[in-house]
Amino acid sequence: MENVKRGNYRWIVCALLFFATTINYIDRQVIGLLKPTLEKEFHWTEVDYGYIVMVFAIMYAVGYVIFGTFIDKVGSKIGYGISVLVWSIAAVMHAFVKSTFGFGVVRGLLGLAESGNFPAGIKAVAEWFPVRERALATGIFNSGTSVGAVLAPVIVPWILGLYGWQEAFIITGSIGFIWLIFWWIFYEIPTKQKRLKQPELDYINSDEDQGAPEIKIKIKWADLLKLRQTWVYIVGKVLTDPIWWFFLFWLPSFFADTFALDLTKPSFQLAAIYGATTFGSIGGGFLSSHFIKSGWPVLKARKTTLLIVAILVMPIFFVQYASDIWSVVALVALATAAHQAWSANIFTIVSDMFPKSAVSTVVGIGGMSGSIASALFPLFVGTLLAYYKDLGNISAGYHILFIISGCAYILAWGVIQLLTRNMKPIESIIEEAV
C-alpha cells in the first residue's frame, strides 16, 4: 500500500533500461548466428571472421571511454538516446555492405555505439533509485543481456528462414528505433519528470547520505585513475569480464566438442544455462539490496554479496568429474548465474562510491579496461585449446579454462578487499586535492 501511495515510476525507467540492454545483446549476436550463411555469401575464412570480431571488441573498448565521458557531459537522456540511435543505424547497415571490409567498418561502428549502454544505464539507475534499491534495479536491467542471449537464437534463424540474411539485420536493428520513441517520451531525470509524484521523488533522494555526495568540482579523467575507488571497479571488470566472454562464445563449442551437441538444432542445454543468468542478475541485486534494507553499511553489503557469488562460481572446478551433460549444465549454469550476480553488484559499486556527475566516466574507464582484457583473453583461449586439440584431448584445455574461471572471482574479491581497507570517502580526497 505504501508503494501505491509513493508511486513506482522509477520501475518504468528500469524497464526501459532492461529493454535497451536486451536489444543491445540481440544486435551484437546477429552476425554470429548468421556466420554460416555469410561465410558462403562472402567467402569468408576464419581469419576474416576473426578480424571482424576483433574490430568490434577494440571499438567497444574505445567507445566505453568516449561514451562514458560524453554521457556525463550531456546527461543520460541525450547520451543514451544517441548511443541507441547510432548502434541501431549500424546494425541495419550490415544488410547493405558488399565486402568483408564493409562488415568490419559497420561492426566497428556497432561496437563503438553499443558501449554506451552500460555507462548510461548505470547513470540512470544512480539518478532514479535510492542506494538501497540500486543493485536490484541494476540486476533487473542487466538481465537483459541474458534475455537477449536467449532470444537471438530464436528470432534470427526464424527471420532468416522466412526472408533472408539482409532482412535479419534490418528487422532486429530496427527494434532500437522503436525503443527510442518510448525513451524520449518517458525518460527524464527525476527533478524534471512531470509524471513523478513528490512522495516518490522524496523516496529516491531519501538515502543520499549513504552514497557518494554530489561534488561541484569536475573530477578529471586522469585524477580518477589515482583513486582507489576507481581501481575497485577496474579490478572487478578486468579479472571477470574475460570469463563472461569465454562463457558466451566458447560454451557452445565446448558442448559440441565434449558431448557431440548438434548446434544446428535448438539446444535446451544452452537455453538452460543462459536462462539461469537472468535469475543470477536479479538475485544478486536483490541480495545486496536486502542487506542494506536490513541495516548493513552499503559497502559491506556489496562486498559480502560479491564474496558469496565468487564462492558460487568455484564448483565449476568439478566439471571435469561430471559424466553426463546435465550435470555439467548445472555446474556451468551456477557459474554463469553467479557472474551476472557479480556484474549487477560491481556496476552498482560505482554509483555507491562516486557522485552522479562522474558515474558514467568511471563506468567507461572500467568498461574499457574489461573490454581490452576480454579482447586479449581469446588469444590465450584459442592457443590453449589448439594445443590440446593437437594432442587429441581438447577436454583438458577446457578444464584448465574452467579452473581459471573458478579462481578469477575470488581473486578479484581479494584484491577489492585490500583496496577498500582504510579507504577514504571520495569527498575527503577531493577536498585534500583542492
Automatic annotation (TrEMBL):
Q: Which PROSITE patterns match?
A: MFS (PS50850)
Q: Which UniProt keywords apply?
A: Membrane, Transmembrane, Transmembrane helix
**Where in the cell is the protein located?**
Membrane
Q: Name one GO cellular component term.
A: membrane
- What is the predominant subcellular site recorded for this chain? membrane
Cited Pfam families: MFS_1
Q: Which residues form the Major facilitator superfamily (MFS) profile domain?
A: 13-424
Give the protein's recorded name.
Answer: Hexuronate transporter
Q: What is the lineage of its organism?
A: Bacteria, Pseudomonadati, Bacteroidota, Sphingobacteriia, Sphingobacteriales
